[in-house]
Amino acid sequence: MKFVGYVRVSTARQGRSGLGLQAQETAINQHVQSRRGQLVETFKEVESGKNDSRPQLLRALLKARLTGATLVIAKLDRLSRNAAFLLTLRESGVKFIATDMPDANELTVGIMALVAQQERQAISQRTREALQAAKARGTKLGNPNGAAALRRAAKGNEAALRVTKDNADARAEALRNTISELQRQGRGTLGSIAEELNSQGILTARNATWHRSSVANLLRRLQVP
Predict the structure, then answer these.
(1) Of 23, 53, 139, 173, which residue is 20 to 30 A from 223 by alpha carbon distance?
(2) pLDDT (tens digit, 9 = 90+) per residue, 169-205?
(3) Quick check: 41 and 4 in contact, CB under 8 A?
(4) Residue 133's CB: how many other CB atoms inside 10 A?
């Protein structure tokens, strides 16, 4: 049985020191050994728990999907407390297991997602009520450094675009050997490549089936004639 590991810590300081990562890797390795499995690769990420744009997790999911492996993590709460993200994991088509909750399944994650979403909505409601109360007391609201905030937001958008491009590049690179093998087998047309990728159950970056246009985009990204 094949496994792809994913470990995460939530601060850059922990990432540099290795605190938390080693314990998670140990738990993952022990689980793989207990199942007499093969650990294909382990992806490490340093991210905020509030941020669902995690390139290493996306790469781990892609690796698991392409290799037919099971995603294994040390703790289920290492993934996210965001409902939308948990539901995306559930619907990604990738099998997963958490060493601290080995019996967790799609239903478990769905329930956790609903609870997480309810808590997030409650926090948002409490924040709005607090702001309204402050405004009623005459407190001046708003950001005094509005222009600076806008500049920071622009930088954030640029960073998000870079992450999207990096993810697309990583997915294309993961398919490079597959494309090369298909071309060696004589499948040189866009249609024949799309047909074979679909027959192997490999999905596009948007979890869709392949067409001539999507294959053409993939070859351009890989700079393959």
Answers:
(1) 53
(2) 777 888 888 888 888 888 889 999 998 888 877 877 7
(3) yes
(4) 10
> What region does 197 belong to: left with phi over 0, alpha with psi -120 to 50, or beta?
alpha
In CATH, the number for domain 2-110 is 3.40.50.1390
Per DSSP, the chain holds a count of helices (H) and strands (E) of: 9, 4
Residue 97 phi, psi (nearest 5):
-150, 140
d(CA 25, CA 40): 13
Q: What's the pTM value of the predicted model, to 2 decimals? A: 0.50
For residue 214, indicate whether it is catalytic: no
Four-CA torsion 49, 25, 112, 120, nearest 10 degrees: -10
Residue 192 has which token pair?
């024949």
Phi/psi of residue 72, nearest 5 degrees: -125, 130
